[in-house]
Amino acid sequence: MTRNAGADMPRAWQRMLSGRRLDLIDPSPLDIEIEDIAHGLARVARWNGQTVGDHAFSVAQHCLLVEFIYQRRVKGASDAGRLAALLHDAPEYVIGDMISPFKAVIGGDYKALEHRLLAATHIRFGLPAELSARETGRIKKADRTAAYFEAIQLAGFGRSEAGRFFGRPRDMVVGDVEKLLTPWPAGRAQSAFLDRVTKLMAAN
Predict the structure, then answer these.
(1) What is the DSSP letter of 13?
(2) N or C: which end of the chain has fewer CB within 10 A?
(3) pLDDT digits over 86-122, tens only?
(4) HSE-up of residue 183 (Cα within 13 Å, Cβ side)
(5) Phi-psi map region of 184: left, alpha, beta (phi>0 left; psi -120 to 50 alpha)
(6) Contact 12/117 with Cβ under 8 angstroms?
């Protein structure tokens, strides 16, 4: 009897609500839909859900916060740069938000997977697969600033502790970003993220 050669192969794709099947090993930009990203990120909790409020603080809302900080800091920020900032955590709609300590334990395999997914996402939405080192650094700085404010406002960190882990911003205060630090229901986060991406894509 002939055995099905694929019977023992682990499934390496994720089925999305759009009907797309995204291969995690070799992701195709053609299988990435912004509606799937918005839906997923709005339902993935930052800080493993260990935040105050009636709702989880979603990755979608975090991405909006990072893009807001980025555009405030980068004078004459391009629409492409702002879109890249907004999509910086897009792979998490597939793989979830792994907290930094867990990433450190897993090591390089996780980062390689994340990198492939982000490159495919960039290509899908008209961005370079690889951003310049300068642009990557700007987004990373905005990401760390967002993490600092989330840590002290939502996740129970003291300012000194958050400063040690994420760096204490010298150019911004909580009041600058407070409107984006109240956790939203998933539907609101999804709509806000989708609207922002759509606007930046049209401009870009």
Answers:
(1) E
(2) N
(3) 999 999 999 887 766 666 666 667 788 899 999 999 9
(4) 23
(5) beta
(6) no
Residue 58's SS3 state is: strand
The answer to whether the beta carbons of residues 37 and 63 sit under 8 Å apart is no
Residue with token string 């800091």: 73
Q: φ and ψ at 73, to 5 degrees?
A: -90, -35
* Segment 111-158, tens digit of pLDDT: 888 999 999 999 999 999 999 999 999 999 999 999 999 999 999 999
Enumerate the β-bridge partners of residue 15: 21
Distance CA 143, CA 88 (A): 9
Token duo for residue 198:
């759509």
How far apart (Å, rounded) are the C-alpha atoms in residues 26 and 130?
16
Contact 183, 43 (CB under 8 A): no
